[in-house]
Amino acid sequence: MEANRLEAIFKPQSVAVIGASTVPGKLGHDILANLIRAGFEGLIYPVNPKAEEILALPAFKQISDTPSPPELAVIVIPAKAVPNALEQCGQAGVKAAIVITGGFAEAGSEGEQLQQQLTDIARRYGLRVLGPNCQGVNHPYHQLCASWPLLTTKGRIALVSQSGTVGAALMDWANQEKLGVSTFVSLGNRADVDEADVIQYLNQDDHTQVIALYVEGVKRPVYFLDALAEATKPLVILKAGRTEKGRQAAESHTKSLAGVDAVYDAIFRKYRVHRADSLEELYDYAKGLAYLPKPKGRRLLNISSSGGAAILAIDQAEKLGFTVPEPSPALKDQLASFLPAHCMIGNPVDLTGDVISDAELYKKVIDAAQAEYDTMVIIFGDPIPRASQIVTPGAAELVVFLGGADIERQEVPLIQGQGIPVFPTPERGVKALHQFFRFESAPPAMPAPTLPPAGLQLLPASEAAQLLARYGIPAAAAPLATSAEEAVQVAESFGFPVALKIASPDLPHKSDVGGVRLNLGNAEEVNYAYQDILATVHLNARKAQIDGVTVSPMAKPGGLEVIIGMNCDPQYGPILMFGLGGIFTEIYRDVQFSLLSNQEEDYRQMIRGITGYPLLAGARGQRPKDEEALIQVLKGVARLAQSHPEFDQIDLNPVLVYERGVFVVDVRIFSCIK
Amino acid sequence: MEANRLEAIFKPQSVAVIGASTVPGKLGHDILANLIRAGFEGLIYPVNPKAEEILALPAFKQISDTPSPPELAVIVIPAKAVPNALEQCGQAGVKAAIVITGGFAEAGSEGEQLQQQLTDIARRYGLRVLGPNCQGVNHPYHQLCASWPLLTTKGRIALVSQSGTVGAALMDWANQEKLGVSTFVSLGNRADVDEADVIQYLNQDDHTQVIALYVEGVKRPVYFLDALAEATKPLVILKAGRTEKGRQAAESHTKSLAGVDAVYDAIFRKYRVHRADSLEELYDYAKGLAYLPKPKGRRLLNISSSGGAAILAIDQAEKLGFTVPEPSPALKDQLASFLPAHCMIGNPVDLTGDVISDAELYKKVIDAAQAEYDTMVIIFGDPIPRASQIVTPGAAELVVFLGGADIERQEVPLIQGQGIPVFPTPERGVKALHQFFRFESAPPAMPAPTLPPAGLQLLPASEAAQLLARYGIPAAAAPLATSAEEAVQVAESFGFPVALKIASPDLPHKSDVGGVRLNLGNAEEVNYAYQDILATVHLNARKAQIDGVTVSPMAKPGGLEVIIGMNCDPQYGPILMFGLGGIFTEIYRDVQFSLLSNQEEDYRQMIRGITGYPLLAGARGQRPKDEEALIQVLKGVARLAQSHPEFDQIDLNPVLVYERGVFVVDVRIFSCIK
Q1: Between 20 and 30 A from A103 (CA), which of A16, A97, B142, B450?
Q2: Of B253, B299, B560, which to mutate for an interface test with A (greatest number of A Cβ within 10 Å)?
């Protein structure tokens, strides 16, 4: 890595434009004009065999004619003439070249050979070459615009792109938003300089705080990994070409799952690269990481003129693991002391449209709430004049502006001009803020309660099983035994093996408290299991009311576990659920919901809608399971729910599905206490 | 539902503004001004007790003073005065009112009572009331702008919003893009008219092609469902308030999985509502459904001035089930006959930056390729003048413009002015187009091949097992038997039970061809299984080379199935994979990848990165499995891969993990043929 020679691409003391033109509209003219207009402070040499003077600068016939060798040459001449020009650069002692011209490797085998010549010449002279087929470099801090269009705003993000257009689109956004860039690098065909070089260089660049890359392919994997490993600045990468187009048919599971892209997921996770899934994410993530201060924690206060916009922010925030706590009572009192009466004090603090005439209200809330929150989400959701005066550069504030029409178009540049990023929707803002937490593990999920809450009671298992039978749902009988002897008696009446389960209105999750024994094969095992269950549950749930133990015949083997449930929605009434049982439900959340329906087709679609449906349909050489019987159970539960509006929740879990028929092993029904 | 009275909100013959004001900047003034300037053709009555004339219209002291009762009253007076004004409207025979004023239910209990009065008055007089606390109605086709700002562009999308700001933001986008709306309805607090009413009304509206709604809550669930069921036009809904904030702790699985939002997923799926996940999706989906013609099929041709932008489109397209076939040889020839030599003819057709000076090239490609594709994805990825002249209204074209800077800002309105939607990024365009296929099942996935492809050979199982052992990986021995007698002999040396598996270099997936028998308990079973395997496999794979059958001891029970694999990436070399086995891998694709590493921590993170990790860590009352032993296997596979660069793929599947130790049941190693 000749870092000092790479320096000549970004910070040359002198620049030649080979192919400089007198004709406006031609790149050879426009790049020269941009170099001049950007205020480049070194010497600029137009090179053109036919012109005496271009844009008031004396022109030179060839590079060797310049009074001193320029450090950087920008080459804008037809492809076939480029190798010769580059050779002359090498001979003249030029340190680096940017080849704008296209028609090389991207244009077929002839172009490939031409490009190989450039690579060879670069190696021979130790000349660093960016391109060919690229859009150049723009380095506002060095007043170097060897690119187009002319953009001079100095920013914090380095944009690096393998695609000219993608780079240009990002530059245009950064320019429209007055954020600017620290550097823009269009890599082109990468005959010499590639993404690894540029990452390493920009990681040392004083003005670059975040490196954003659009990458289609990586030229030197080992160097690329090194560059990622060494990078100390945040990297945001959009790796295109993710899908499986053209993938070879794969012989192993591993290869078929790896596809063409899994390796980049693995690499980016390892090196903590912020992978973007779209062009807008690439831009938003870079913008957030460069311009937002890193939040101390995940507590957000939403301050908005619009309830709706705040709800969108909160939805996105909670999805990503942020918390949105209510203000403390003291803070609420304080806010109430100065906010107009109709403002809503909570999270969000909804200032309503009043702030159109008094943007200062935002500022007062921010000042008061600062100590309780990690980030203020400030949503300007109306045409709010003077919005730009109430935000503070460097403060822990996430600013969103929407619905502000012309006032928004006036204020946003005024805010961004202060180095404060503004996001166009609440969702995009919150997703950008989340990048600071992307590589931290998410906060733990809410633990499940062990006892049923007030207002609900658990139907005894024996009663629930009888109820199911009345609705045509085949369920395991579960008579209650209140002594070991009785349990043995019941077991013998069923025939072995049997299952014993704790019977308690307080313990809906029986196995969690050690209250289940399966596959008991004889009287002795039943006797022991009865005692053992009571002792174990007593230890685990001392306060629970224990009614005894239920005894059930074991289901015959070979069934697939599924779960069927009903939950009463406060607005829409009973909702049915279907999913594969056990881990599929608990960990993968692979379930589907449906309103009650009198069309079997709706239930069939629900069943077929789960990801794991192939298991039911007969994956892995198994025979298909009895889908129709499942539909009948769903219809039965629907009728049951309609007849018993007092039932708040029903879990049939597990239900075993066989090739023919189904069997409900366990059922829990929660009823409202009237 | 008095539909004809609702008509008075959207198509009144006369309008009164109660609270009309002479002071510009006040809503009572600005709404009156907008009514006039939008060109409303009926009578307009300003109502103001103090003014004689407002904006050159004679003003009236009260509603009863107007020469004839207006059909619609727009009310913009302080909240406390609204009930009385509405009462007067009822008495005067006004058919409908829009209450702009806030300070009702959104502002506490006093406001709630005030709002209830509005509801009561509305019922008493059969007066339909929109609002209170709303931003009114804009219906450009009726030249009715009882809202602000003044927007008059006639479009195809009806925007309905429960949030003023969200509605205003959408209106602003539609206006900036020159697409306009068919109607804008701000629902406000919904004292009377609600989302169900408006959906039903707009479904009958001649100019509305798509209804886009922002909804936080639904007032009358039954009517809402009816409205969805009856709607014949595409509905796009952003339902906010999705997350679990404030969710009660749930006692049943069903309830805990249902959360607060699953019911809307179920409803929207049933009624084929296009659910949007963000504000931009709401806008993009509505725009696509309203302005793009429904494609005949999924075949896309990408025509672009930018390779990068086309790759982004293709990535998104393939993710969503579109196909991107190459042009036929005939079409390629035809394209080559007129395209400049350096254009790349494939999918995409990359026209390169040349089209900046010759946009007609797009048109020529479109015309030539029309017959082979369902939709042309036209990507203007540069400042392309005259882009607006090469697109055709109503044609099967998806237009994306990016990276075009000022030219883009000139051309996009010219394109959209023709009723052709333009999307700002390839990803957003393709996602919008996909809405037409959202409720169709995805095309079938690529079938797995049965035979290993040319260039790879499968190592014999016995050899592979020995190799693993040399790298410290405990695997089932799998000696080859070439007769039933030999198989019995080997089985007896292991002790029963054993497993028999077909040995063939052509059959990597042994169970797919009926080549596996497990749990054979004695010599007789082994003898029978041997014959049976050979007969079955012969039937299923007549051409496969059969070497015999391998005999292995059965693994001890109680292990958790996982899969460990290696795949050689052409650039990065060996990549390791870890996942839970069986269905978890095949259906849920719950796997993680890692580069080779000498840090155990990397492998530990890979193991812990799968969704199903709780199963390994000891979910459902199980003891934790031996994670450290798994790490040792991964390290062993890594060493194996490094020592054998000729190995292209390795599958250890299944691997059983116990509380202590692991056991590789089956292994497949594919080696490159040199």
Answers
A1: A16
A2: B253
